[in-house]
Write the structure tokens for this entry.
Amino acid sequence: MATNNTEEIEEVERKEQEVVNFDEFPPEVLIKHPLQHTWTLWYYEPDRTKSWEESQRKITSFDTAEDFWSLYNHIKPASELRQGCDYSMFKQGIRPMWEDDANKCGGRWLINLDKKQRSIDLDHYWLETLLCLIGEAFNGYSDDICGAVVNVRPKGDKIGVWTTNANNEDSVMELV
């Protein structure tokens, strides 16, 4: 029995050592798909020893569809975050706080979810929101979008899309 395991391990090690010759692939296979903006993922976890702003942690930034999926597939789903924690996805250079210049005159659109919906709907709605962000899917008003936040809370969860200008009635109506 040990021989089979040893042989399997050796086979895996041999495959890991094989060098991929990228010259064999057509160029279109190797090109990543750029996004219009670079996006940054933030994580908030409450810490009584730090201010709210200090508790916001910048995780990483990405600017291709492939890098988005790599990130998304390697983080906890929103539904598995501890209560009180948030994920935020904002355009690079915009912090997920109202004090940021890009957000000062802005607003947000909220989806409120009952805590019973956490295991059913939260991850789906959050992913759809992220895809709308990075895919610039706001019908010509994507420049008005700063980012989005998912809040996991004891009484219910929220997903908010943050806009740069709450007074732009055209974009407000379009987002609805």
